[in-house]
Design brief:
Strand content of chain A: 15-25%
Largest sheet of chain B: 8 strands, mixed
CATH architecture of chain B: 3-Layer(aba) Sandwich
Number of helices of chain B: 9
Helix content of chain A: 25-40%
Helix content of chain B: 25-40%
Number of strands of chain A: 13
CATH topology of chain B: Rossmann fold
Radius of gyration of chain B: 20 Å
Distance between the termini of chain A: 17 Å
Strand content of chain B: 15-25%
CATH superfamily of chain B: P-loop containing nucleotide triphosphate hydrolases
Largest sheet of chain A: 9 strands, mixed
Shape of chain B: globular
Oligomer: heterotrimer
Chains: A alpha/beta (337), B alpha/beta (321), C mainly alpha (299)
Chain lengths: 337, 321, 299
């Protein structure tokens, strides 16, 4: 029984500069595992620069890791060829953030659905293809007659994003990478789209990796969460536990800064110690958050390992060093399904 | 307390090949100094048009067709172009969405601030202007060294705060912030909003925050106005809006918000906002309203004020005036 | 989850023809250029169909005749009917223009695509060659090549070839730049996810979006080719037997036509030259506005 997808000690660094190579680490030694039989929704949360987009690109096979391996059903995705590669493509899909950018302005929106149906041979006839398209569009709350045959600029952002999700429905992948699928969509439509995504998991057994910076939506849709900051895992565990009782100072800052739509919950109980934007150099050794951490200690100059705090929560912070440390590879054991 | 901003019956239309779209259809609003109003609505509801209309920055094919925008006693709609130019930034300031991209990339921040002051105020000495600029920078928590920097040397949050600094240079009476934090991270967003809060208290301005993030409204504003297809459906205090919204649309919006209690429950609003070119008759929300009545389909509800200063456009309450 | 069906507003699409007319009203340069070109085309087609084309060549009619009913544009020293000569000349100019223009554009598209999409050392080579060849003064090289060819070898086809030789770099670089931006667009990523291979992406995703650029590039190349053929012919480097407009002017100048009071001989070709180049220039500028959205004036 091999896992669906596995990240093994994946690191991605970018370097530029001709004479003196300056390198930025987008992801630092991250390991993850997703199993086949239990479809789950995992959130990778982080702000910009956290490495979450890099993670998505690596998952989809668009970029290669600098070190480490990405395995799909036990095989390295960059070594796949032919039939197996098509299989990988078919089973790992994505929903992106910008509903307009994913549509080719030259074609009607049907193109987004007809191309994969044709390439992956999902239908044996034109009628069957049309039926599948109708079914998917209705499932996301659109009337097929209203959107098929139209050009992207003739539809609203919400409609376009729903079509994107419909595409995912038609493909029934095993793994769906949803990169900020609702951040460019009006608040009232978000609930619909998130519900559809969750339906995908419950009814069609699709595992979803939900990448976002918005913890409110993450809380609603995901089972487990991994919090990234500048390429490193800060905290991970069951989404309820981590969001309601965050342990890592960064997670606490994040949760605290969320403007909850709740009159009685005021943000800003944690003071922002150092303003992120005023820092010009970030620490390259040790804990990535140390320069902004209100509780920084001398030993933070060494990268802290992941300390297990309970069955479904771990944080990489020396505040918890009395707890047992776990290997990065074992990260997935924390995450409930 | 005399209101610092009064909008009466503002009407803006866009004339397109396919017809006339009423982007704003009779909007009324009042704000006193120091008050913060949140303007929420879906895209197409008219909130950005409102901001542009108040600044008289509507370009063809859009046209301001009627109404008054009275800031500190002066109706901006009656001013000549020249006078309006002066009024912008000195009486009413606008922080556009993605303001960080509206900073000039080839001039230093300080130079842009000085330009802004000079355009309005010929008299002051250079030293005086510089001092005012540096003070403004400090009030948004930026060090005065930013004065000499270029826009690309600053991060997103810093650029946004620089824009806020420019907007408060002439101590306007009204500041309009159009989704000032949409491109920013959650932590930076909090910083920027705290900054706006602080400078607003310092100069005693009224703030209109335009956005669709209800959470941000809950944390920041005093009053909330919910817009739909160019009309204000409900305007009330922020506490009332979150605890007891009365308009069916506002109720649906509040219900659709995710919070920590209702995990896994999704309450979307069925249907879609109509295109402005094809508005339903009567109340624009009636096709999606759970409490629709017969007269909602034919008659547009009048704007009614009920107890507690709440303003509603809904037939359920139009008799209780 | 219920779907409330609303009457979807009918998106009124004005007919294609209306859209074209509206655009013409805005882009007057393009409209005027196309109109003049249309007149020239009608003239050429009518002439080709009705006149005896042999009269475009020397010693076929009475020479040195001023314009009259029989010879609308007069005849020249060598006994050509200048009206027929103009018809044939315009036809051949069009041929050179389309040939050279088409060839240049095609080379540009192929090389541009390969260079941008596949990158690597292929890109470096192609880009390098383009950048090295571009500053070379084309006029000079063309004159040298055309001048050193045996007079009998110079035909309209060799002229077209000489013109293309130093013209293909422009389209290549422009198309390359466009493909470079296009391939980063998210719809290309989605196409990859949908199982499309590289060739499929090039032809079905990227190419259709580049059609305005390719069209603008083509018009540019045609303009340049016609212009080049003119100046080469005027310098006497064209296929001398053919009645190209430039050739006629060169011949007229060689026989001191104005001094001999044969004013009609160089005048009409010159006027035609102005019209042809003028209309192409207007169309070229108009196409730039069409293909480059930033230059486009908003409605």
């Amino acid at each position: 029984m091999s896992d669906l997808l596995e990240f093994k000690n994946v690191t991605k660094t970018y370097s530029h500069g001709l004479l003196s190579r300056v390198s930025t680490t987008a992801l630092n030694n991250v390991s993850l595992k997703l199993e086949t039989e239990q479809p789950t929704i995992m959130t990778v949360a982080g702000e910009s620069g956290s490495g979450k987009t890099t993670l998505a690109m690596l998952l989809l096979g668009f970029i290669e890791p600098t070190s480490g391996q990405i395995l799909y059903k036990g095989k390295n995705i960059h070594a796949l060829r032919g039939e197996e590669r098509m299989m990988f493509r078919r089973e790992v899909q994505a929903v992106f953030q910008d509903p307009f950018a994913v549509l080719n302005p030259f074609y009607t929106v049907d193109h987004l659905l007809t191309v994969p149906i044709a390439r992956f041979k999902l239908a044996k006839s034109k009628n069957e293809a049309r039926d599948k398209m109708y079914e998917a569009l209705t499932a996301v709350g659109l009337r097929p007659g209203d959107v098929l045959g139209r050009f992207p600029h003739q539809l609203s952002g919400g409609q376009r994003q729903r079509i994107n999700v419909a595409r995912a429905l038609v493909l029934r992948p095993k793994l769906l990478v949803a990169d900020e699928p609702v951040s460019m969509v009006d608040a009232s439509l978000r609930a619909n789209i998130l519900e559809t995504l969750r339906g995908l998991q419950k009814n069609y057994g699709v595992s979803i990796i939900y990448i976002t910076h918005d913890l409110t939506t993450a809380y609603h849709i995901a089972n487990s969460i991994v919090v990234l900051y500048r390429g490193a895992v800060m905290e991970a565990g069951a989404v309820d536990t981590v969001i309601k009782t965050p342990q890592h100072p960064y997670t606490r800052l994040l949760i605290d800064s969320i403007p909850w739509p709740d009159i009685n919950r005021r943000w800003g109980e944690t003071a922002i110690k150092v303003r992120e934007s005023d820092l010009s150099d970030h620490p390259s050794v040790g804990c990535r958050f140390s320069s902004r951490c209100p509780l920084v200690m001398e030993k933070c100059k060494q990268s802290p390992p992941l300390f297990r705090l309970s069955e479904h929560q771990a944080a990489s912070c020396y505040l918890y060093e009395q707890n047992p440390a776990i290997d990065p590879e074992k990260l997935s054991e924390l995450l409930p399904v | 307390m005399t209101p610092v901003l009064q909008i009466k019956n503002l009407q803006v239309s866009y004339y397109t090949d396919a017809g006339r779209a009423r982007a704003l259809d009779g909007v009324d609003l009042t704000l006193t100094a120091g008050e913060k109003l949140g303007l929420v609505g879906e895209s197409g509801s008219g909130k950005s048009t409102m901001a542009l209309a108040m600044m008289r920055m509507i370009k063809p094919p859009g046209r301001i067709e009627g109404g008054q925008v009275i800031v500190d006693g002066t109706d901006l709609m009656t001013l000549s172009d020249q006078t309006m130019l002066k009024a912008r930034l000195s009486k009413i300031a606008y922080i556009p969405q993605g303001a960080m991209n509206s900073l000039n990339p080839v001039t230093r921040i300080g130079a842009q601030m000085v330009d802004a002051i000079k355009a309005h105020d010929e008299g002051s000495s250079r030293a005086d202007i510089d001092r005012r600029c540096k003070l403004a920078l400090e009030s948004v928590d930026l060090s005065s060294s930013v004065f000499k920097m270029y826009a690309h040397e600053l991060s997103g949050g810093m650029k946004q705060r620089a824009c806020i600094a420019i907007s408060i240079l002439l101590k306007p009476k009204v500041i309009i912030a159009d989704e000032p934090t949409s491109a920013l991270d959650v932590v930076t967003q909090r910083q920027v909003m705290e900054t706006i809060d602080r400078v607003q208290k310092q100069i005693g301005a009224a703030v209109i925050l335009i956005g669709h993030d209800m959470g941000l409204m809950a944390q920041f504003v005093d009053k909330v106005a919910v817009m739909y297809t160019g009309r204000i459906m409900e305007l009330c205090s922020v506490r009332d809006m979150f605890t007891d919204p009365k308009h069916p649309y506002a109720q649906a919006l509040i219900r659709s918000l995710p919070n920590l209690e209702n995990k896994g429950v999704f309450n979307g609003i069925p249907g879609m906002a109509p295109a402005l070119l094809q508005l339903p008759g009567g109340c624009a929300f009636h096709p999606r309203c759970s409490k629709v009545m017969e007269n909602c389909k034919t008659q547009r509800p009048p704007s009614t004020t009920i107890s507690g200063g709440r303003i509603l456009e809904c037939h359920l309450y139009s008799e209780k005036a | 989850m219920t779907t409330v069906s609303l009457a979807q507003p009918e998106i009124i699409q004005p007919s294609r023809l209306t859209l074209i007319f509206r655009y013409m009203r805005r882009n007057k340069g393009l409209a005027v250029g196309l109109f003049i070109l249309l007149l020239l085309v009608i003239f050429t087609v009518y002439g080709t169909a009705t006149a005896d084309l042999k009269h475009a060549y020397p010693i076929t009619v009475k020479s040195k005749q001023p314009p009259s009913w029989e010879f609308p544009l007069g005849t020249d020293f060598f006994g050509r009917d200048l009206y027929v000569a103009m018809v044939v000349g315009l036809k051949e100019t069009a041929l050179i223009g389309l040939l050279a223009g088409g060839l240049g554009t095609m080379v540009g598209v192929v090389l541009g695509f390969i260079s941008a999409y596949f990158g690597g050392w292929l890109d470096m080579i192609i880009k390098g060659i383009c950048q090295i060849l571009t500053p070379i003064p084309a006029l000079l090289i063309q004159i040298i090549i055309a001048g050193s060819l045996d007079k009998r070898d110079v035909t309209i086809y060799t002229m077209a070839f000489v013109v293309v030789l130093l013209a293909w770099m422009g389209p290549t670089l422009v198309i390359r730049a466009q493909v470079l931006t296009m391939k980063e667009r998210q719809f290309v990523s989605v196409a990859k996810l949908s199982g499309m291979g590289d060739l499929g992406i090039i032809f079905s995703e990227i190419l259709p979006n580049l059609l305005p650029f390719i069209a603008a590039s083509f018009v540019n190349q045609v303009f340049y080719a016609v212009f080049a053929s003119f100046y080469l012919a005027v310098l006497g480097l064209g296929p001398l037997r053919e009645p190209l407009l430039g050739n006629t002017i060169w011949a007229a100048q060689g026989q001191s036509a104005f001094f001999n009071n044969w004013w009609w001989w160089p005048l009409f070709p010159a006027l035609a030259l102005v019209l042809v180049l003028g209309s192409l220039a207007l169309i070229n500028m108009g196409m730039d506005e069409l293909a480059n959205p930033r230059v486009r004036k908003t409605e």
